[in-house]
From TrEMBL:
Subunit structure of this chain's protein: Component of the RNA degradosome, which is a multiprotein complex involved in RNA processing and mRNA degradation.
Organism field: Natronospira elongata
Pfam families: DEAD (PF00270), Helicase_C (PF00271)
EC number(s) recorded for this UniProt protein: 3.6.4.13
Domain Helicase ATP-binding as annotated: residue spans: 39-218
Renumbered residue ranges of the record's region Disordered: 390-438
Name this polypeptide is given: ATP-dependent RNA helicase RhlB
One GO MF term attached to the UniProt entry: ATP binding
Keywords: ATP-binding, Cytoplasm, Helicase, Hydrolase, Nucleotide-binding, RNA-binding
Catalysed reactions, semicolon-separated: ATP + H2O = ADP + phosphate + H(+)
Location, primary (coarse class): cytoplasm
Subcellular location: Cytoplasm
């Protein structure tokens, strides 16, 4: 949703030369609004609690402040190799991976060592990385706590702490873990603290005041809650018409990079079979997809090799995939805020995009709440009969092991063992499978 820039230029900020060089190489000159509001505060050593949606440039804001603080303040003399100087906490693997990727670009000239840990993959490799020593540790709560309790690393030398998408931490049930980790850091007055969240709700600000040093609240809202350049449309099909309508719409457009959101993993698997049977190359991204395959799918999607990605809300936040042309809400989300995050996958960095939603009888009850939340009435397409097509037989459904829903038996990813996963889901009982990303 990064659709406009502020008048603040990066070269006007008191940034270390290695950071200015990386910014110039990346082709950036002016700050986004959230960067213009938060960077001067953080660069001056003040704690910041920022409200900003995904795609507004908040990741670069906290990374630049983090790197600058480490470059400007020497490490404690007694620091050991396995003591990170900065900690960045993210709720999902995908977001942690993306933050690490951005950190590699912005920190390329700093000489600071980056570490990345998350559940589901690379247990021994990640462990060795921590033992060898990192300056900036980026990770998800479950795997971090696993290594911490084994004393692979400790946080007594940390000079910076960042909590990204704090509201999502609450939604996914990680908040006890977050408080546990934050209590292992030096006193808030002895470090720079930054928190970012889509909403600075009471519970988020309570967390901020508990673990930060008198943070300054910064709220940057777009002119509209949803991306300015997203063309939004709602169709009103019957539930049994949705696949035919989706195939009809896809045949009329160029779905070179299309995301299709559903509320349940089983729906994703069935829909993928229908699309494959009707000559569309599609794959499913959900909480039960192994981490290596998950990253492979995202890479294929980003390069254009995979044109259609069907996903549950596991991918609704934190992914920075360029040039997504279309977002379909095959199922309207149950949470109005998730609608904003879903359609925010398109029309990024000033581009345009289309967000097409199906309000069937099962999920149409969410539409009024969504419209209230975004403070606008969505255009309705009530005549869609001409778009319905006859379907070819669907391909075989590819289910993951573990029964009809594909979920593994208890113990497969639970517990903090060598799998590194701690929690299996987001909102319990919702069926939306948002979690599985610690």
């Amino acid at each position: 949703m990064q659709t406009h820039l502020s008048e603040t230029r990066f070269d006007s900020l008191k940034l270390a030369e290695p950071l200015k060089k990386a910014i110039e190489e990346a082709g950036f000159d002016r700050c986004t609004p959230i960067q213009a509001e938060t960077l001067p505060l953080a660069l001056a050593g003040r704690d910041v609690a920022g409200q900003a949606q995904t795609g507004t440039g908040k990741t670069a804001a906290f990374l630049l402040a983090l790197f600058n603080h480490l470059l400007s303040n020497p490490a404690p003399a007694e620091r050991r190799a396995n003591q990170p100087r900065a900690l960045v906490l993210a709720p999902t693997r995908e977001l942690a991976v993306q933050i690490h990727k951005d950190a590699e670009a912005l920190g390329r000239h700093t000489g600071l060592r980056l570490g990345l840990v998350y559940g589901g993959a690379g247990y021994e490799q990640q462990r060795k990385q921590l033992e060898d020593g990192v300056d900036v540790l980026i990770g998800t709560p479950g795997r971090l706590i696993d290594y911490f309790k084994q004393r692979v690393f400790d946080l007594r030398a940390a000079q910076v702490a960042v909590l990204d998408e704090a509201d999502r931490m609450f939604d996914m049930g990680f908040i006890k873990d977050i408080r546990y980790i934050l209590r292992k850091l030096p006193h808030p007055e002895k470090r720079l603290n930054m928190l970012f969240s889509a909403t600075l709700s009471y519970r988020v600000m309570e967390l901020a005041y508990e673990h930060m040093n008198n943070p300054t609240s910064v709220k940057v809202d777009a002119d509209q809650v949803t991306a300015d350049r997203v063309r939004q449309t709602v169709y009103m099909p019957a539930s049994d018409e949705k696949v035919r309508l989706l195939v009809g719409l896809l045949r009329r457009m160029d779905p070179r990079r299309t995301m299709v959101f559903v509320n349940m993993k089983r729906t994703a698997e069935e829909l993928c079979a229908w699309l494959e049977g009707n000559d569309f190359h599609a794959q499913v991204l959900s909480g039960d997809v192994p981490q290596r395959k998950r990253l492979s799918l995202l890479k294929q999607f980003e390069t254009g090799e995979l044109p259609i990605l069907i996903t549950t809300d596991v991918a609704a936040r934190g992914l920075h995939i360029p040039d997504v042309s279309h977002v379909f809400n095959f199922d309207l989300p149950q949470d109005a805020e998730d609608y904003v995050h879903r359609i925010g996958r398109t029309a990024r960095a000033g581009a345009e995009g289309d967000a097409i939603s199906f309000a069937c009888e099962t999920w149409a009850m969410s539409l009024p709440e969504i419209e209230d939340y975004i403070e606008q009435q969505l255009p309705k397409e009530t005549q869609h009969d001409q778009l319905l097509v006859e379907l070819k037989p669907r391909a075989p459904i590819k289910r993951r092991p573990g029964g009809p829903g594909g979920r593994k038996k208890a113990g497969g990813r639970g517990g903090r063992g060598r799998s590194g996963g701690r929690r299996g889901g987001g909102r319990r009982g919702s069926g939306s499978h948002k979690g599985g990303n610690d």
